[in-house]
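Re: the 226-residue chain
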Amino acid sequence: MSADVAVSLSVLVGVVALSEVTRRLCSRALTDTGLSVYAVELVSTFQLCCCTHELKLLSEVGGIEPRLALTFTYLAAVVHGLTFNGAIGNPSGALEHAYHAKLSCGSALRRIACQFAAAAAARAAVPMIWGMGLSGLHVRHKLLGFRCISPIHAPLLTAATVELGCAFAVQSAITRTRSVEEKYRVHAVAAVIATVVYAGVEALTVGAISSCKVSSAMSSTTASGQ
């Protein structure tokens, strides 16, 4: 395993560990206020976005092997599914819960606000981590001005169609596995996510993971615990 991959894995582990500690502290401190669910939503979405940014960097700039990238995607999806503690992690999931009357409209909108705030915080925080130059990959990305590189090589309509198909597959897996015991369910959903990411790669990219697909698929798995 290269030093760049080892450093990135350390960053991922650190983000998840820090987020888990923060989640537990917030849950205890805000138990009687009714705000704990929003704190957990904020922290969990921050975890999701930070991990997605780092995985995206490994894939697009680091050029790791597709098999390794898919393995990391699967493991990250499992970790998010097991640690989110009731958080949803994406606006579509919150709106779906509101539609099925599992959340009030106000609660769904507050969760969505937390999600956007967490995404903005992650977008500001991750470049600071990269700027520390912990690995050669981080240094190279800093020299590039943290510029994103899209690996998608397909017309917009084709890309949107593939994205829609993959999202449908993931959501179907989430819906159809609700009766499965949670410790098995997260692995099943994560496996579907890894499969659709692979399918999306084959359809849209040349030798790299589709960053938008990783992000949307990994956020979709957070609904698996709902």
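The two ends are 36 Å apart (CA to CA).
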